[in-house]
Design a protein that fits this description.
- This protein is mainly α.
- It has a single domain, classed as Arc Repressor Mutant, subunit A (Orthogonal Bundle), CATH 1.10.10.10.
- Helices cover 81% and strands 0% of the residues.
- The chain has helices spanning 2-12, 18-29, 34-41, 45-66, 68-80, 84-93.
- It starts with a helix and ends with a helix.
């Protein structure tokens, strides 16, 4: 499930505050524990957990409404089914 949120974060990450981005990156990219993140930021473990949970909920919400990631996957699937030369040109545009 973590990879799913990392991929969504690539699309919607800029919609979060700097602190939210820091918590998310520490948890999902740097593999820090909630306690390590809390210690690094002088907050409670519960505060970090709540932030991570809120971020993942928002990522799901943004994807549900905007569907940027799922549309990309659909386009990639269609590209595989078309002519090689056209596929290469489309991939270059993406």
């Amino acid at each position: 499930m973590g990879l799913h949120y990392v991929e969504l974060f690539d699309y919607y990450g800029e919609l979060f505050t700097d602190k939210q981005k820091e918590y998310f990156k520490d948890y999902y990219f740097n593999n820090l524990t909630l306690q390590e993140i809390a210690d690094n930021n002088n907050v409670s473990k519960n505060a970090v957990h709540k932030n991570i949970k809120d971020i993942t909920k928002k990522l799901d919400y943004y994807e549900e409404k905007l569907q940027l990631y799922s549309n990309k996957k659909k386009i990639e699937k269609l590209i595989k089914e078309i002519d090689e030369e056209i596929r290469i040109k489309i991939e270059e545009l993406i």
